[in-house]
Design goal:
By secondary structure, the chain is an alpha+beta fold. The radius of gyration is 25 Å and the shape is elongated. The protein has helices at residues 44-52, 94-104, 109-122, 138-150, 168-185, 196-202, 220-225, 230-235; strands at residues 6-15, 18-28, 33-37, 59-64, 67-68, 80-82, 156-160, 188-193, 205-210, 213-218, 240-250, 253-258, 263-270, 278-283, 289-291, 299-308, 312-319, 324-330, 344-348, 355-357. The strands form 4 sheets. The protein has a 6-stranded mixed sheet with strand order 6-7-8-3-9-10, sandwiched between helices. A 5-stranded mixed β-barrel has the order 11-12-13-20-14. It folds into 2 domains: 6-232, Rossmann fold; 241-357, Nucleic acid-binding proteins (OB fold (Dihydrolipoamide Acetyltransferase, E2P)), CATH 2.40.50.140. A hairpin with a 4-residue loop joins β12 (253-258) and β13 (263-270).
């Protein structure tokens, strides 16, 4: 069996009694776009810095094509890195910035000139070689940083929150460019962000970090549709949670009684969901149906707020047990017509789309 291109093996980083990264284990395929997603302090950037050689792990190993990286200094790992701040040399032109890592490697001038031209074309900055960084926009500077990181054809490119300093429109433009460059070059990318939408837009797979550990790894679709922990369910997309108690359980599913006596059958469960256990029933807002008249097997609720958001209408409702539920109705949905605060409504959902967490 062929070994993974890049292997993170039980990496741990500890500062005294504080564990920043706790035994992280992950395999990355060659050419994959893998994103480390999580809130501040979750361990995602620390793991990236250990890969780059900017920090030493307390224990564990990093293997690239079967060989450890830990005995190789950071400047000899041949790994590209793009930071949140562009870290361009202000006294060097764009072309000189891109050429810098090639000059350090003592490449011939003709090769450097050809590579700089090719790298700037890749990031769509042809004709900018003589421009100084101070005379460029933030988005352009980040493209230069990307061109410099790719200039020496690294096997792995690490990107640490590279777009967080840009405004939303520009961030989306550069996201598109990064995705295009990944497709054109086939470089293996490890990308750190706290922005779930960015992760979903860019990634082949996402590793969700929480408190120094990876909670779950999967595609965006897998993480959204099949979250294995409550943290992942809350962090990826929007979610509602209702309190319930397990009546019957078996084969990874349970019958759950909600606070008002409403019974939900055959809900997929995570954790020790035995009979009598309290659980949180997760529902996705767009998977909830809203009715203006009472329906069998539906929850009674009262509308508290209605907000039109263009392609959908966001409805905030309150159940009989005073639990808050957000519902997202697509544009033009008949249930949204004339809906206003104070209206009595009934909510329904497919139990298979719900998840129960202990």
């Amino acid at each position: 069996m062929t070994a993974p291109f890049l292997q993170i093996r039980n990496i741990r980083k500890q500062y005294g009694d504080v564990v920043a990264v706790r035994d992280v284990e992950l395999d990355i395929a060659k050419g994959e776009f893998m994103t480390f997603l999580g809130p501040s302090g979750s361990g995602k950037s620390t793991t990236l810095y250990i890969l780059a050689g900017l920090q030493e792990p307390t224990s564990g190993d990093i293997l690239l094509e079967g060989r450890t990286l830990l005995d190789t200094p950071s400047h000899k790992r041949n790994i590209g890195m793009v930071f949140q701040r562009y870290t361009l040399f202000p006294h060097l032109s764009v072309g000189e910035n891109v050429a810098f890592p090639l000059r350090v490697r003592r490449k011939p001038k003709a090769e450097i000139d050809a590579t700089v031209s090719r790298a700037l074309k890749l990031v769509r900055l042809e004709g900018f070689a003589d421009r100084m960084p101070a005379k460029m926009s933030g988005g352009q500077q980040q493209r230069v940083a990307l061109a410099r990181a790719l200039a020496y054809d690294p096997p792995v490119l690490l990107m640490d929150e590279p777009l967080s300093a840009l405004d939303k429109k520009l961030r989306e433009e550069i996201q598109f460019e990064i995705k295009r460059i990944h497709q054109e070059t086939g470089v293996t990318i490890l990308y750190v962000t706290h922005d779930q939408e960015e992760a979903l837009r860019l990634s082949d797979r996402i590793a969700v970090f929480s408190q120094g550990e990876i909670d779950q790894v999967g595609t965006g679709t897998e993480l959204y549709a099949e979250p294995r922990t409550r943290f992942v369910a809350e962090f990826i997309g929007d979610s509602d949670f209702l309190k319930g108690r397990v009546e019957r359980a078996g084969d990874g599913r349970a019958d759950i009684r909600l606070g008002n006596g409403f019974m939900v059958s055959a809900v997929p469960t995570h954790g020790d969901a035995g009979p009598g256990r309290d659980v949180a029933l997760m529902l996705r807002p767009e998977r909830i149906s809203l009715f203006r008249a009472e329906k069998p097997r539906s929850l009674a609720a009262t509308v508290r707020d209605v907000t039109f958001l263009g392609n959908n209408t966001h409805v905030q409702a309150e159940t009989e047990t005073r639990e808050q539920v957000a519902i997202r109705l697509p544009f033009g949905h008949e249930s949204a017509a004339g809906l206003q605060s104070g209206n009595a409504v009934w909510l329904g959902f497919d139990p298979s789309s719900a998840r129960a967490f202990c």
